[in-house]
TrEMBL record:
Protein's recorded name: Spermatogenesis-associated protein 20-like TRX domain-containing protein
Coiled coil: none
Spermatogenesis-associated protein 20-like TRX domain sequence ranges: 2-156
Pfam families assigned: Thioredox_DsbH (PF03190)
InterPro entries: 6-hairpin_glycosidase_sf, 6hp_glycosidase-like_sf, Ssp411, Ssp411-like_TRX, Thioredoxin-like_sf
One of the protein's GO biological processes: carbohydrate metabolic process
Amino acid sequence: MNELAQQKSVYLKQHANNPIYWKAYSQKILDQATAADKLIVFSIGYAACHWCHVMEHESFENQDVAALMNQHFISVKIDREEHPDIDAAYMKAVQLMTQRGGWPLNVVTLPDGRPIWGGTYFRTEEWTQSLEQLAKLYQNQPAVIFEYAEKLEHALLSIQNPLEIKPLFEFPSQPENQKEFFAQLLEKWSSNFDHEWGGMDRAPKFPMPSNYKLLLEVGNQFNLNTYSNFALYTLKRMALGGIYDAVAGGFSRYSVDHRWHVPHFEKMLYDNAQLLSLCAETAKQFNDSFLKRIAKQTTLFLEENLKSESGLYFAALDADSLNASGTAAEGAFYTWTKDELQAVLGESYDFFSKVFHVDELGYWEDEQYVLFRTDDDLSLAHKLNFHESAFAEKLENSLGLLKTARKKRSDPVTDTKKISSWNAQLLSAYCKAATAFGDEEYLQRATDLAFALEKNSLTGNRVFRVDTQEINGCLEDYAFAIEAFLDYYQLTANENFLRKAIDLCQTVLREFDHKNGIFFKYQASATRESLVHIETEDNVINASNSVHCRNLFRLGIICSNNDFLERANKMLEAITVRIDYPGAYANWLSILLANYNQQRAVIVSNPNFAAKLEILENIAADVQIIYASTHFELPQTTGKYSDEVKLYSCSVAGCDLPVTSINELPKDWFFAANQR
């Protein structure tokens, strides 16, 4: 029978009425499959996945497909956002077998979990033919399948260790060598830039926030404005494109075309958290009011659509919803026909249609238009003969009418999982926005989320994957939680969150350490060594190892812990010398750029220091803020607490004499764009 009805995952519940005898993932599955001597079908997806819904409707609701799967296989449904470790392990196998990946991810394995076949979306006929052949082969020629499984396992083991990749460079350990190193890497990378629409010159286009953060940092640090300007241009193109929801804020997961026009309509918490942070930091660097507005609107989207009663934030909104005919359709909530726009906007339609290309440029399919701009407010105001303030008012009123009208539509399904690592990324984003804008509202949002995360996602020194505390956290959850707690500590001087970050770091060292002694494994345990995942490539979400490498640098400086600093340096050097494509290692390169080995810190003698936001707004990325305290003393803060606020600038060479004003700190400790 189908066992998914009692599961908490929205994605698993979506499959609870399938005629397939789905089971939820557990370690017992392998024992059951071994006892039954059956192959296992692992079908992996997530609630907001459009093609997951398509395959369900075509195949998993089909009685003939169900009869085949129920007779010959143990069928397991997995929510990839609950079990990213299982997803990552089998994705690696499918990519090795097929040279492609994605979701839904469907893998057939031996009873012991070793993969033997897989792919992504399959049409019904292809799916049934493949399963029939595998079932017949396993029954009649099992030795053939076992031989293939063994070969695939050896192949997976051979690509598991990043250290097997031959080094391409010498490690640029000294800052004076880094400008040339970055110039060479980025010159090669820039040949892939799309200078017309921003982003990389390909489709589909993903936002990739860490790529553009790196370009901003390189441009700022080395005065290479070409790169920082390209990052600014790309971010603005995204915000003007259909990938951004002009009506209610928030970014979709990616664009299917090169213009950022037609999105894959699901909205994910992790995308919006990172893009909020990027918009805030870019707005600060360029004093850009448009991106500040986008950051504020994205925050409003998060508050209105994804915030739960517990204070944590839900995972996603689905791409599909019911259209006017009552049929589930991709983008139905977000797209408009001309008739619909004319009915809602009335006399403002002509103005609006010029702003958002309700013409052949903005047309999608089936008489539907995706709202899409090519010009910014100032350009359009001039073009349409409006004063800028009058243009902004008319645009805001028009979008308000559409937002009201859209509330009458069927809402996309909300995936109500509250994922620890994604909430931690939002906590970091709120901290960044608070410092970028000097905004007390963001400080309060950060405080609310920090305490909600600590209360609901942690028990002692353990992080759980979701707030139900039934699934152990992966390295991703620990790494982002540590990063967020450090960000919050620096913003507020709340030492309890520094303590928590230190404790969680010790858990990572104890439970996630890989035998190579350099990197950390993605999951604390795995059923087989070949399914161990070491995540080192930065993707839309940064690699958990790169995030934790930065954590070790920061905690090493704050706690004067040379073991942390040594481990971080080993990780950074092992990756840096093997980088061939910067886009896959952007966060690693950002860490290299920060030059943490200078061990720079500003020690504040009193945690009641009133100018926390002011100092964080301008301080360089590698400089840690450490607060002296009467009841939580660190090696560097010993003897430095005082009622009078004093600021000590410290580095690997020691601490300078204290000063009493931010303006007296070393000039080169501040962002180049904001040197005091």
